[in-house]
């Protein structure tokens, strides 16, 4: 096997055969969706939002893909998936919309060209990354790509690489600038030379996501022969000590935080000593040949000299190997047409195997091209790639898959990027000036779009709009700096409706371009006080959200005509939207409390203070209603529902009803004498949130349990009628039957959770759901909670779902 690619493990054939048996069991209905998921995800096979379609993620160790491998992937995609292959931010390639019947044929086709998808997902050793220009750039210590390839070859042979507490990500950078994010990975190696010897500075337990963390220095310098031992020891530590019960706190960085630096390093060193006693051989490092191959093509002239000169300026860089050049091939959002993949693979094959790298920004980098063939390559691109010569920033923006295909997505990040591209293209800005800008867009708090490593970053969330509607929105971050010993993650600076995110990007570029002579780079601008204040100002200028009747565009995400829903965009993703809404009101409460404190300390109007206290009362009343399966349509309803579900259920003391009455009757001045009571209500709601279980129950400590003397009488709000349990259709006796027709996402899921919480293990709950988003979404969310879906049966215009409680 060529040293440009990892070696396949010996047991791969048997693993594919075993996987095939699982697929057949699933197709015959002999295996549940959950059981199938447990097997397929570690094989890099993910279910997409479109029913019964799958994404297959292919390992490309060290960012390398050989020309004939790329060609083959285009051919596989033509037959078994979609009309494109997708380049990822983790330097892999994905096939989308494969059917279950296509999964095993794809596995065999991949193997035929030395590729595999195993480890593309799940709690596994993920694709091992390498700097895209390693081996050809001036100033690097040495080429780190062979280390990424060799470590891949070793780790994919080990069974425990597929059964970790959570995903385990490794990367290599060739220089202190940390172009490949070694300082924010589970395990990151930065190449160093010391006394003429190759080695690495090693970082551990970093990572990005909903809770980010910088890596910690493990070694300032370690000999390159220890690369495997370090990875093995880290994997062993993680395998034995990682939290397998809570996937949201199970990454290596959480283990560092849980154990503390001293205990973590003590345990790590114990594992390292044990690994060294095993005397594993060092990795076999095969240096890559970066000497250009001359295919003896007839040298061409560029078809358009002026355009060629501009292309050369934008995308061509001379390598440290004199007379050889690397070329960026821009691929918008990483979507490479199958025909383009096939054509590019065919064209580059005569130039050798060591010619293509996949970049983190989802573009392709071609290397080792002799200067005389640059016009040839330009002519090839002009024929086969429509937008190969436009400003780089238009195709350098990173956007994860978002809610278009990803189960976790909240916002349609690719749609936002495409809209931004269009708006920038229509502007008169000199976009070549911002070619160095890093604009990264993630559809949710998970950092698949690398928003924490951006100059200007965005991650999706749900935001409230007038009349209790919700809209797609982004948190805005600025100013990441990735450098050995001096890394800083991007910091939140504001938020903005998704509809206005492209305008924010355009106006930020406009502000920078007008003052570019004052700053060394776009990064320097966004990190400066001037830049930050400018971006804050842009965010604030778009704070006003029109009502739905005035402008529906705010209530739709980019790339869709459907009104936005916090949970109805696919299976299993209700909870993200729910907690966004909860935390939004908690944030409002906290902000208003701070403003009240400022008025108390510095003075201010009584009218303003009274309004703030009244607003805190409203936010408290609305805050946790979503956990009871209800969502108010107006303010009065929020107070009534709060009485019903919190005061009458002995979660909140009845004395707080006095505040609700003052708010209902708009007696603002009376709140001035109720400040302590309002703050006490806010503290009580925060306590309830803190003790809330994943099942939305409140495990209050004994000294916080209350018993109100009597219930407050409330006018009922059109309760949903509940049909009687029946086993006529499915011959299974449900203990409880609930009709959730007409209940929108995510309320239907919350109501389902509430009903399940009342049942015993193995009890059966029957729910009725509308067609469309409810049936697409709720069963998947229930499965994620660990319960079993026994049946999904369509009855006329609605669905009957039987759930067995875990």
UniProtKB/TrEMBL annotation:
Quote one Gene Ontology molecular function term: sulfite reductase (ferredoxin) activity
Start and end residues of each Nitrite/sulphite reductase 4Fe-4S domain: 122-272, 437-516
Instruction: Name the chain's protein.
Output: Ferredoxin--sulfite reductase
The residue ranges of the Nitrite/Sulfite reductase ferredoxin-like domain are 46-112, 318-379
Looking at the record, the residues that make up the UPF0033 domain are 739-805
The residues the entry assigns to the signal sequence are none
CDD domains, from UniProt?
A: SirA_YedF_YeeD (cd00291)
| Keyword Transcription regulation on entry | no
- Matching InterPro entries: NIR_SIR_4Fe-4S (IPR051329), NiRdtase/SiRdtase_haem-b_fer (IPR005117), Nit/Sulf_reduc_fer-like_dom_sf (IPR036136), NO2/SO3_Rdtase_4Fe4S_dom (IPR006067), NO2/SO3_Rdtase_4Fe4S_sf (IPR045854), NO2/SO3_Rdtase_FeS/sirohaem_BS (IPR006066), TusA-like (IPR001455), TusA-like_sf (IPR036868)
First-tier enzyme category under EC = oxidoreductase
EC number(s) in its UniProt entry?
1.8.7.1
| Keyword list, A-Z | 4Fe-4S, Heme, Iron, Iron-sulfur, Metal-binding, Oxidoreductase
The reply on keyword Acetylation is: no
């Amino acid at each position: 096997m060529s040293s440009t690619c990892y070696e396949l493990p010996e047991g791969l054939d048997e693993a594919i055969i075993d996987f095939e048996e699982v697929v057949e069991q699933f197709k015959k209905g002999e295996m549940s969706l959950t059981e199938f998921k447990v097997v397929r995800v570690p094989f890099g096979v993910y279910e997409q939002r479109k029913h019964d379609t799958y994404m297959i993620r292919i390992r490309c160790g060290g960012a390398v893909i050989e020309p004939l491998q790329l060609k083959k992937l285009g051919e596989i995609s033509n037959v078994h998936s979609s009309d494109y292959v997708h380049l990822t931010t983790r330097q892999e390639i994905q096939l989308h919309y494969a059917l279950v019947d296509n999964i095993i044929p794809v596995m065999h086709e991949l193997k035929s060209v030395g590729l595999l998808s195993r480890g593309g997902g799940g709690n596994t050793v993920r694709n091992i990354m390498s700097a895209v220009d390693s081996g050809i750039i001036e100033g690097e210590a040495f080429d780190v790509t062979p280390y990424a390839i060799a470590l891949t070859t070793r780790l994919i042979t080990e069974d425990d690489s597929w059964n970790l507490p959570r995903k385990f990500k490794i990367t290599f950078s060739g220089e202190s600038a940390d172009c490949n994010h070694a300082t924010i990975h589970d395990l990151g190696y930065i190449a160093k030379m010391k006394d003429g010897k190759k080695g690495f500075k090693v970082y551990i337990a970093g990572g990005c996501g909903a809770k980010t963390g910088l890596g910690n220095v493990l070694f300032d310098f370690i000999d390159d022969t220890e690369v495997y031992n370090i990875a093995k020891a880290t994997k062993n530590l993680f395998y034995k000590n990682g939290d397998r019960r809570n996937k949201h706190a199970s990454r290596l960085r959480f283990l560092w935080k849980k154990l503390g630096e001293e205990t973590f390093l003590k345990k790590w060193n114990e594992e390292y000593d044990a690994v060294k006693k095993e005397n594993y051989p060092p990795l076999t490092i095969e240096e890559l040949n970066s000497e250009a191959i001359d295919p003896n093509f007839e040298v061409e002239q560029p078809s358009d000299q002026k355009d060629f000169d501009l292309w050369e300026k934008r995308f061509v860089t001379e390598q440290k190997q004199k007379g050889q050049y690397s070329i960026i091939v821009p691929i918008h959002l990483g979507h490479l047409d199958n025909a383009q993949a096939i054509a590019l693979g065919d064209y580059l094959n005569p130039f050798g195997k060591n010619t293509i790298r996949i970049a983190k920004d989802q573009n392709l980098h071609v290397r080792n091209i002799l200067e005389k063939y640059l016009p040839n390559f330009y002519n090839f691109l002009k024929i086969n790639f429509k937008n190969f010569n436009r400003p780089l920033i238009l195709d350098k923006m990173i956007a994860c898959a978002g809610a278009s295909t990803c189960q976790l997505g909240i916002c349609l990040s690719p749609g936002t990027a495409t809209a931004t591209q269009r708006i920038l293209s229509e502007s008169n800005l000199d976009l070549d000036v911002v070619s160095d800008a890093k604009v990264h867009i993630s559809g949710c708090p998970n950092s698949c779009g690398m928003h924490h490593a951006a100059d200007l970053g965005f991650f999706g969330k749900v935001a409230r709009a007038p009349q209790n509607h919700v809209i797609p929105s982004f948190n805005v971050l600025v100013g990441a700096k990735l450098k050995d010993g001096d890394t800083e993650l991007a910091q939140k600076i504001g938020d903005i409706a998704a509809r206005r995110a492209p305008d924010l990007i355009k106006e930020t570029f406009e502000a920078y371009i007008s003052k570019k002579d004052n700053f060394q780079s776009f990064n320097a601008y966004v990190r400066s006080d001037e830049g930050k204040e400018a971006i804050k100002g842009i965010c604030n200028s778009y704070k006003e959200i029109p009502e739905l009747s005035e402008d529906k565009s705010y209530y739709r995400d980019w790339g869709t005509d459907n009104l936005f829903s916090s949970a109805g965009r696919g299976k299993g993703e209700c909870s993200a939207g729910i907690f966004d809404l909860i935390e939004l009101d908690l944030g409002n409460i906290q902000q208003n409390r701070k403003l009240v404190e400022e008025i108390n300390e510095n003075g201010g109007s009584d009218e303003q203070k009274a309004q703030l206290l009244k607003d805190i009362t409203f936010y408290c009343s609305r805050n946790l209603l979503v956990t009871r399966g209800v969502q108010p349509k107006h303010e009065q309803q929020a107070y009534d529902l709060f009485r019903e579900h919190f005061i009458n259920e002995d979660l909140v003391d009845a004395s707080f009803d006095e505040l609700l009455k003052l708010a209902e009757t708009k007696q603002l001045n009376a709140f001035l004498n109720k400040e302590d009571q309002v703050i006490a209500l806010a503290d009580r709601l925060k306590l309830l949130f803190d003790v809330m279980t994943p099942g939305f129950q409140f495990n209050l400590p004994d000294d916080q349990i209350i018993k109100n003397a009597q219930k407050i009488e409330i006018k009922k709000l059109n309760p949903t009628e509940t049909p009687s349990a029946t086993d006529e259709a499915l011959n299974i006796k449900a203990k409880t039957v609930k009709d959730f027709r007409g209940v929108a996402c995510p309320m239907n899921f919350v109501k389902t959770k509430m009903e399940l919480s009342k049942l015993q293990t193995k009890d059966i709950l029957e729910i009725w759901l509308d067609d469309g988003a409810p049936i697409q979404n709720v069963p998947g969310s229930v499965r994620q909670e660990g319960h079993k879906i026994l049946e999904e049966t369509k009855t006329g215009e609605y669905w009957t779902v039987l759930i067995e409680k875990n």
